[in-house]
Amino acid sequence: MSQDDLKLSVARAAIQYIPEGKIIGVGTGSTANFFIDELARIKNRIVGAVASSRATADRLASHGIKVFDLNDITEPLPVYIDGADEITAKGAMIKGGGGALTREKIIASASEKFICIADESKLVDILGKFPLPVEVIPMASQLIARKLAVFGGKPVLRMKEGKPFVTDNGNVILDVSGLQIKDPANLEEKINNIVGVVTVGLFARTGANLCLMGCSDGVKTLAFQ
Ligand SMILES: O=C[C@H](O)[C@H](O)[C@H](O)COP(=O)(O)O
């Protein structure tokens, strides 16, 4: 089975968690894209979706799924479905490889349940092999890079086509490599508290409730507290 086959298998498995007649939260990335394409098949069962990025909003809209602004939603979203760059057996994640971490964390916090969809390559014992994305205010990027280095990793400004990568929110991203994150909730809080940091791509305090993990012998369901 290819990695794409595994992503498709978890995208399909996630459909059973979509409640009828509701607005749901939808994440960003290649696994989320498989999910959006599966969601399109049952689009008449939902009212619509809140998107965690412009790319996701465009893909939802291209399938004729109504996209809602979070500001127009007055009740918690029943479910948020998204991928991860790394996930532990306790449901803590690194996210933001696609640069959508801030909107992802906002929508996750607006949702009753976070269902992570991931292939088995994403399961790790200790977070940090994947460089930790940190979205920052552009004028503070060098200052914050020096502060992040104190945690032992190497922060590098994310680039795209020779220029700093700019998020949907107009900010830049520092990718911190070389970390071994043994206490994700603690590091999430510490990095969040650095002035000028918008969001750290550690999702421990707002971790997943459930992970549908695509393995070569089938989809496994990992439930977290
Ligand atoms: O910013 C992007 C998101 O956090 C993605 O959910 C994450 O990067 C995983 O993406 P993929 O499903 O493409 O591996």
Automatic annotation (TrEMBL):
Name the UniProt record assigns to this protein: Ribose-5-phosphate isomerase A
Gene3D superfamilies: 3.30.70.260, 3.40.50.1360
Keyword annotations from UniProtKB, A to Z: Isomerase
HAMAP family xrefs: Rib_5P_isom_A (MF_00170)
Pathway given in the UniProt record: Carbohydrate degradation; pentose phosphate pathway; D-ribose 5-phosphate from D-ribulose 5-phosphate (non-oxidative stage): step 1/1
Keyword GTP-binding on entry: no
Enzyme class, first EC level, given as a word: isomerase
The family this protein is said to belong to: Belongs to the ribose 5-phosphate isomerase family.
GO biological process, one term: pentose-phosphate shunt, non-oxidative branch
Quaternary organization: Homodimer.
GO cellular component, one term: cytosol
Record-listed substrate binding positions: T28, G29, S30, T31, D82, G83, A84, D85, K95, G96, G97, G98, K122
